[in-house]
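We close this part of the discussion by returning to an individual protein. In the encoding step, the backbone of a single protein was reduced to a row of integers, each denoting a local shape. The sequence in question and its structure tokens are set out directly beneath this paragraph.
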Amino acid sequence: MSTKQERIDALLRKSLLGEELINTQFHLYSTRSRRTGQVTTPRALFANNILLTESAEYFAKLLGECRSDDPTLIDFDSDTPLEDKLPLDAYDYASDSDLEDEEGECDGKSYYRCGFLSSPGCFKEEIIQRCALTDDDETSLVESNTDIPKEPFEELVAQEANDLKKRTTTACTRPSLRPNNSRNIFVKDTAFATWQALLFYLYTDKIVFAPLRSQSRPSIKGVGLHDPPPCSPKSMYRLASKIGHEVLKEKALLVIHGSLTEMNILQELTTTMSSRYPAILEVQVGLLYQHIASRPVVEGLPALIKRIARGELPHGADIVTELYQRVLLKHYPSALRPAPLEPMPAPLEPVPALFDPGSPLFDPGPPLFDPGPPLFDPGPPLFELAPAPSSLESSPTLPKPSDYPVGFRFGQPASRNILGGSVGGKQKKKK
């Protein structure tokens, strides 16, 4: 099998000859609207099948002759309508850090936090309702409320609604398909940034992970064409688990572990990733135990325990169990050792047979009385019997062979017997 650099060089030579290099187009969502609860703005990535199929077994099956049965992957063509929006619940990972939030989004609560509302009372429901409307409903609501007195915060809300309509109209424009014979696959459960980082890694073995949002560090922006596109380590761990890429999965897990501190460990323990992937939860609980006496953990852990007690975290019992195991391992290691095996009981003595004469259960003991000597002596026998002959030759009643005349044959009929006077089988008549 050729190396990746050799395969890339082969593609460059094909490009010089004007051959088509794009075999598959992947379409993925790139932004998220917290206001509408949807993922939006599909974008396309163009890939070469040779590089992908020789880099990962997942793509060898996906791009082979047999179509994938994964419901999150949809083949479509120019005649098939493309879903420009998708509910976050259907996307399956609402907290995906690789989905960019729509610019300028601000719900009712954030208006209040920013100081635009002096009180979140009378117009709060209207603001939240306005932010959750679709395109058509949004326009009618803004027009129907034009007679409302224009308070400063209302003007901001109306302006935000108008801006939202413009952005939504632009984001929902269906991307044009490249006019070639490439296959088009719509990926419904992965962000554009994560898939782009995956393809770049499969091409070059290079990957860059962005910091976790809980680290409060600025995200990586303005990446040049010569730099790998960054992605969230948690999003990549999720994708690598799906496609079965163990090397990339391990790389992402190492970065997740290195990104955890006493400042963000309690926040990370409450994420969706912790409830879905035991390996991530194990790493997080290990760091929680390591910083169990730090001030951020001491101050925040009671609130986490209360959330677990209220059943707000589906993996709350796993957090407590894993933490308890760490305490035992550190302070009471003998408690985790397997219990010693109980000694085998001594074998039972065999039970004697019920009817065994030698069995002590049925020992008759000594006889009850002694019969003593016989009452009389029968004496010698009155007569003796002659001994039986030992053989036929010594028997007096049977003739010996020598007693028969010469020429006599045993078993012949009497007509041929010499003693009977027959000659040649015929008897002579007397004259």
